[in-house]
Amino acid sequence: MAADLTIPETIFAGACAGLMELMVMHPLDTVKTRMQLATSSAGLGPSVAGTLRALWTDGGVPRLYRGLLAPAAQEPIKRAAKFTFNKKYNQMIIGDGTPTWAKKTLCGALAGATEAVTIQPFEFVKIRMQAGNRVNAYANTMDAVRKIAKAEGVGAFATGIESALWRSGTWNGTYFGMIFYMDQVLPQAESRPGRLGRKFVTGVVGGICGTVLNNPLDVVVSRVRNAAGEEKAKYRFMWPSLFRILREEGAASLYKGFVPKVMRLGPGGGIMIVTFDLVSSFIAARR
């Protein structure tokens, strides 16, 4: 990290990283969710370009950013939790000892699981807002919250938490583990732009590797959170749902939404780590 931040400073830097990544990459997240919720067995389904065109035709920029309010409230919390708890777990597990790839991966996985708990209601509402079968169901985010609470009860906002623990733990463990590994093998840079470029590369590699491993889990999370009524019996927990999708729709269905997701979380992983570094340096310079 660029500086040894206090916990409040880490929270602030993480929140800034999350907001920056969200504003640049949210349209791809909407595309990813639409593709993951398609239940046909016809391979990977519609293309990224086709889904983007359909969203644009359906409503232009507002449709691409539909459901933004929930993640706009969520992302600062989510990324602040990611970096803050990763720091805390590093202090607890590694402390003054020698960091290793395995320890860094474990700390990241625990931070991801903790992150999943902190943002569960926000992500649940975001999925419902982005789902193609619910475009006309909710006027806006607050309308979605009211209607879901009325129709399904307050407990509905915890739907999919078990699946989210697996999903977020896998992505964050891989992300922070790969950042540590890449930091060991990449040549050092002398200039500030060079160091930021190096940091961006480590984040991109971490984001891509995390996405490759956790995309099947993310498909399940989207299905579980969007399930209502009779569908709740079909999609409930991570591993039964994953094997059901595999059996009914084939292995390719577990990678629905992969292209827009990796397009988002590859560069997004770089944007996050660079923004976190820049904000950390800014804070340290003004102490």
Strand proportion: under 5%
Which superfamily, in CATH terms, is the homologous superfamily?
Mitochondrial carrier domain
**What's the helix-strand series?**
HHHHHHHHHH
Total number of strands: 0
How far the N terminus sits from the C terminus, by CA atoms, comes to 16 Å
Structural class: mainly alpha
Number of domains: 1
Which stretches of 5+ consecutive residues score pLDDT under 50?
A: none
Q: Supply the number of helical segments.
A: 10
Shape: globular
Task: Write structural notes for this entry.
By secondary structure, the chain is mostly helical. The chain has a single domain, classed as Mitochondrial carrier domain (Mitochondrial carrier fold, Alpha/alpha barrel). Helix content is 75%, strand content 0%. The chain has helices spanning 7-37, 48-64, 69-93, 101-118, 120-130, 141-152, 161-185, 192-226, 238-249, 258-285. The longest helix has 35 residues, at 192-226. The radius of gyration is 19 Å and the shape is globular. The relative contact order is 0.16.
Write the topology of this structure.
Blueprint: H1 7-37, H2 48-64, H3 69-93, H4 101-118, H5 120-130, H6 141-152, H7 161-185, H8 192-226, H9 238-249, H10 258-285
